[in-house]
Write a structure and sequence with these properties.
- The chain is an all-alpha fold.
- It has eight helices and no strands.
- The longest helix is centred in the first third of the chain and has 81 residues.
- The radius of gyration is 42 Å and the shape is elongated.
- The relative contact order is 0.09.
Length: about 260
């Protein structure tokens, strides 16, 4: 290095050339360094853009899934309520044959839609919701089965009790059916045929009932009392429905506190 300095002192022109060389080398190094910095910055920007796009896409996917789950759970609950409420009308309302057929078809259609919605929930809902939905479907199916088996006798009994206050024949038939049911509940095999015969005779004197209604009342007397069973089925349905609502609200985070508004 000392020799270079001595040479420059001895040859002033060389200093000019050497300074020019240093400027050129410095410019080249500066350009290379600037390019490297810019390249690193460009890669960082590109990486940040890709990450931002990924986060946005994921947020959109989760928002769409949340909406789908909310809609499917709500539709499932609606069909479950529709099926049970429709079937429940078959028990106590005075209905024409056409009205009975319409209600039965409506309840069955709601149950079919419920089954379809359950399959859709199985694809997009968490396990806890799927399990609660399965419980609710079972409760609806049980209630519809009860309606199919016992609602005809319930409607006949409603017709019978609706006129018994002013019809001695209806009062006698009602008492005979109650005695027949008591014999069955007690397991009294000796009394059952006797009570059955008495009920058959008594029902023949009831003008508001046809032969088909009389027959279903006789058969129904051998079965467990309907009102407690009906209440039990409705309670099971309500419990299953409540379980699904709780699970659905948990999955949808419906209970999360909303941020307080500014101001």
């Amino acid at each position: 290095m000392d020799r270079v300095i001595d040479f420059i002192k001895a040859e002033p022109e060389a200093a000019t050339v050497f300074a020019a060389l240093l400027a050129i080398v410095g410019g080249i190094l500066g350009s290379l360094l600037s390019g490297w910095v810019q390249a690193r910055g460009g890669k960082a920007q590109a990486s940040a853009a890709v990450e931002a796009a990924r986060i946005t896409a994921e947020a959109q996917r989760l928002a769409s899934l949340h909406t789908d789950r909310r809609q499917e759970i709500a539709a499932f609950i609606y069909e479950a309520r529709h099926a049970v409420n429709t079937a429940n009308r078959l028990f106590f309302s005075p209905l024409s044959p056409t009205e009975v057929a319409t209600l039965q078809a409506t309840a069955q259609a709601a149950y079919t839609a419920l089954s379809t919605k359950q399959a859709e929930l199985e694809l997009i809902a968490p396990v806890e919701v799927v399990e609660r939905a399965s419980d609710l479907t079972g409760a609806v199916e049980d209630f519809l089965t009860l309606a199919s088996l016992r609602a005809p006798a319930s409607r006949a009994m409603t017709a019978l009790t609706g006129v018994r206050a002013n019809d001695p024949g209806s009062r006698q038939a009602y008492s005979a059916l109650q005695a027949l049911r008591a014999a069955h509940d007690a397991g009294d095999a000796d009394q059952q045929p006797v009570r059955y015969g008495e009920a058959v005779v008594a029902l023949r004197n009831v003008a508001v009932l046809d032969s088909a209604q009389a027959l279903v009342l006789l058969d129904d007397a051998a079965l467990p009392s309907l009102p407690p069973l009906h209440d039990q089925m409705m309670s099971s349905f309500s419990g299953a429905l409540r379980g699904l609502v709780i699970s659905g609200r948990h999955v949808l985070r419906a209970n999360d506190k909303q941020p307080a508004e500014a101001g």
